[in-house]
Amino acid sequence: MNKVLISVVGPTGIGKTRLGIVLANYFDTEIISADSRQFYKEMSIGTAVPSKNELATAHHHFIQHKSIHDHYSVGDFERDAIKKLNELFEEKDIVIMVGGSGLYVNAVTDGLNKFPEVDSSIREKLNYELATNGIEPLQSKLRKLDPDYFTEVDIQNPHRLIRALEICIGTEKPYSSFLKKPKSKRNFKVLTIGIDATREKVYERINQRVDIMVKDGLLEEVRSLIDHKELNALQTVGYKEIFQYLDGNWTQEFAISEIKKNTRRFAKRQNTWFKKNRETIWVNHDYEKKELLKMVEKATLKLKNE
């Protein structure tokens, strides 16, 4: 096991793409993307897909390789990512993974948790409740049934809420209780690098990023997708708020402010998720490039020799 996956994590807007490219170029390797929002080719601006220049600077995998009409689960991603890693490790000793979707990162590094089968009628009832009463009753229900998972999950994502609730209801046990299983065995070692900053700096970067997205054409991108707004891939921050504006429910100004607010909340949950990994090496967002590369190389060599 002398192969190493360097996983770059951190909250949205913190600079994971930039660091991933720095590391990929330094180690002459390629990048696996573990950002579930960037899988879809119809979504670019609102998901902050790497620019054409960034994609040309380092070879990325799993960027806009699916359509919003495709069903692509975290289990599908685990299978495809491990297959791709095995291919890359035939020629490379080190591969980089970049992403802020904690569940997808963990699927690659640790493997997915196994959940019991539950009655499909539970999901049907939850979907009906969502369509009838909106997302807030589901959020309240999860807070009551599984307060631990409630603090970690993206509570604005109805798919994640319904998945957790059907397990809670069907098993009469918290969804989080099924997340505490031994790690799957991998044929590579993992070095996790987290990018950190003060809450004020993270929020400042998020607000700036949203303003840039709007300037770059976010409203036009979302408008082009309005006929498909019920699809699961579009039930995400940056899109659902603009749909509210386009439907005449919100003003444009309020919709943009909601994107910023919901993105800040998402970043907070990302930090909660990633801080649980005590083996992560945290670096400040304004790291000095040469010193960081020296540190990562030293940590990688140490990990290979363990």
TrEMBL record:
This is tRNA dimethylallyltransferase. ATP binds at residues 10-17. It catalyses: adenosine(37) in tRNA + dimethylallyl diphosphate = N(6)-dimethylallyladenosine(37) in tRNA + diphosphate. Belongs to the IPP transferase family. Catalyzes the transfer of a dimethylallyl group onto the adenine at position 37 in tRNAs that read codons beginning with uridine, leading to the formation of N6-(dimethylallyl)adenosine (i(6)A). The gene is miaA. Monomer. GO terms for molecular function: tRNA dimethylallyltransferase activity. It comes from Maribacter cobaltidurans.
